[in-house]
C-alpha cells in the first residue's frame, strides 16, 4: 500500500483544523479552502478510518467519540512535524503564549519569568493576564495558569500551590476603630467585595454566623490583586492569599489580624492540552515552573 494511501496527510490537516475550530467554515478560512473542499477531505478521512469523525448539524459540527480520540493525537503529530521542520531550517527561536489569572500573573509570574527567559533565550514569552477560562481548541495559547480543582477534560494539570485565604488590611485602617481584636470587629469596616464567597466561608470558620454581607454595598474590582491595592490604600478589608503579599506585610502596608486561613478547594494549576504534552517549549516551561514552585510549598 502506498504511503499516501496509508497516511492521508491533507485530510488529516483539514481534520485537525476543523476539530480545533469546531467548524468546517472556519477551518476552510484558516487553510484557504472552501467549505465544500473541507467537507470532502473530512469525508475521505472518514472513509479511510472507517468511522464517522463528526456529527453534522445545521450550522454546527461536533466530534464523535472516535473523532475525540483521534483529534489530540493528530494535533500532537503536527506539532512534532512543525518542530522537526523548524529544527531543520535552523529556526532556533519560538514563542510561548501563557494565559494566567491576573493575580497569579502580577503577584508571582511577572516577577519570576525573567529566570525562565534567561535559561531559555530562544523562547520568546508572551503573557496574557485575565480570569477568563480559555478554550485551547480555539485560541493560540500554549499553557495556562488556572484556579480550580484540576479536573479539566483533555488537559494535563499540575498543581502549583494551595490557595488559602484570610482577611488583610492596612494597620492605619485598623487603628481607626481602635484595632481589630475579634473577627466581628472587621464588620465595623468596609468589606471589599462582600459578595466574594470567600468571605462567608471565612466568617463561618471564625464563628461569625450572621455577618450580613448581602446587606452591604456591592463592589467588585475584578481581581484579588486589585483588591489588595485598595486595601493598601486603606479603602477597606480584603480577603487575600497572604503568600502573595509578603512584601506589603514587610513594609507595614498590610497585616493579617488572625491566623485563621480557609480554602474552598480551588488551587492554582498549570494546564495544557494532552496532545501537546511533548512539545519542547511546553516541557521547558513546565519543568521550570514546577522547579520554582514545589507543590505544597505554599502551606
UniProtKB/TrEMBL annotation:
Q: Which domain of life is it from?
A: Bacteria
Q: What is the lineage of its organism?
A: Bacteria, Pseudomonadati, Pseudomonadota, Alphaproteobacteria, Hyphomicrobiales
Q: Where is the HTH lysR-type domain?
A: 7-64
Q: What is this protein called?
A: LysR family glycine cleavage system transcriptional activator
The record's InterPro entries line, in alphabetical order, gives: LysR-type_TF_proteobact-type (IPR058163), LysR_HTH_N (IPR000847), LysR_subst-bd (IPR005119), WH-like_DNA-bd_sf (IPR036388), WH_DNA-bd_sf (IPR036390)
Coiled-coil region list: none
Keywords in UniProt for this one? Answer: DNA-binding, Transcription, Transcription regulation
Q: Which family does it belong to?
A: Belongs to the LysR transcriptional regulatory family.
Amino acid at each position: 500500500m502506498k504511503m499516501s494511501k496509508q497516511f492521508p496527510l491533507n485530510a488529516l490537516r483539514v481534520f485537525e483544523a476543523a476539530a480545533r475550530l469546531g467548524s468546517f467554515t472556519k477551518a476552510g478560512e484558516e487553510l484557504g479552502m472552501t467549505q465544500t473542499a473541507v467537507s470532502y477531505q473530512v469525508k475521505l478521512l472518514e472513509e479511510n478510518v472507517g468511522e464517522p469523525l463528526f456529527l453534522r448539524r445545521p450550522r454546527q459540527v461536533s466530534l464523535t467519540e472516535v473523532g475525540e480520540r483521534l483529534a489530540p493525537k493528530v494535533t500532537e503529530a503536527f506539532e512534532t512535524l512543525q518542530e522537526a521542520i523548524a529544527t531543520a531550517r535552523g529556526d532556533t527561536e519560538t514563542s510561548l503564549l501563557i494565559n494566567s489569572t491576573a493575580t497569579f500573573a502580577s503577584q508571582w509570574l511577572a516577577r519570576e519569568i525573567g529566570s525562565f527567559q534567561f535559561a531559555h533565550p530562544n523562547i520568546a514569552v508572551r503573557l496574557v493576564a485575565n480570569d477568563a477560562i480559555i478554550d485551547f481548541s480555539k485560541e493560540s495559547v500554549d499553557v495556562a495558569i488556572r484556579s480550580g480543582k484540576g479536573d479539566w477534560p483533555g488537559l494535563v494539570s499540575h498543581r502549583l500551590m494551595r490557595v488559602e485565604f484570610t482577611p488583610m488590611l492596612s494597620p492605619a485602617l485598623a487603628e481607626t476603630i481602635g484595632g481589630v481584636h475579634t473577627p466581628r470587629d472587621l464588620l465595623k469596616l468596609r468589606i471589599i467585595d462582600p459578595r466574594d464567597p470567600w468571605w462567608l466561608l471565612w466568617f463561618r470558620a471564625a464563628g461569625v454566623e450572621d455577618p450580613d454581607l448581602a446587606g452591604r454595598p456591592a463592589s467588585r474590582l475584578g481581581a484579588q490583586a486589585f483588591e489588595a491595592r485598595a486595601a493598601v490604600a486603606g479603602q477597606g478589608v480584603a480577603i487575600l492569599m497572604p503568600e502573595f503579599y509578603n512584601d506589603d506585610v514587610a513594609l507595614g502596608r498590610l497585616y493579617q489580624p488572625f491566623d485563621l486561613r480557609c480554602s474552598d478547594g480551588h488551587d492554582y494549576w498549570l494546564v495544557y492540552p494532552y496532545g501537546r504534552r511533548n512539545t519542547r517549549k511546553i516541557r521547558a516551561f513546565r519543568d521550570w515552573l514546577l522547579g520554582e514552585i514545589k507543590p505544597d510549598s505554599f502551606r
